[in-house]
Amino acid sequence: xTIPNNLSQHDLTQRIKTKALxxxxxxxxxxxxxxxxxxxxxxxxxxxGYAGEMHYLQRNAERRRDIRQVVPGAQxxxxxxxxxxxxxxxxxxxxxxxxxxxxxxxxxxxxHDNMQEKLxxxxxx
Length: 125
Fold this sequence. Notes:
Layout: H1 9-22, E1 27-32, H2 39-47, H3 61-65, E2 76-81, H4 111-124
Antiparallel strand pairs: 1-2
Keywords: 4Fe-4S, Iron, Iron-sulfur, Metal-binding, Oxidoreductase
GO molecular function: 4 iron, 4 sulfur cluster binding; epoxyqueuosine reductase activity
Organism: Candidatus Entotheonella gemina
C-alpha cells in the first residue's frame, strides 16, 4: 500500500481495517507494538503446562514478549481473526452424551493456510 503523505493515522487505520474485513477476516484491530498486560497470564499458562504438545509456544519466548525483536522498528501491530464456522451444528449443540466433541478449528481445511493467504493479501495492500 502506498501511503499518501497527507493521510492521517485514523484514515490509514480505517483503510487497513476495511481491507482486512473485505478479505474475509472476522476481526481486525491495531495496537501499539509494545508489551501486553496479558503476557504474564500467558507465561503462567505455559508454565502450568496448559499448552500440551504445542511446544512451539514456548520457543523463542523473548521474541513473543517484544514484536520489535521480530520486526525491528515496528510501531503498530495489526491483529486479525477468523471464525472457525462451518455448515455443521456447533459442537456445544451436540446433546448426545455418547458422542465426543471435536474442536471447531479441526473441522475444515487447515486454517493456517487460509489465514496466511489472507494476511499476504493484506500485507500487499
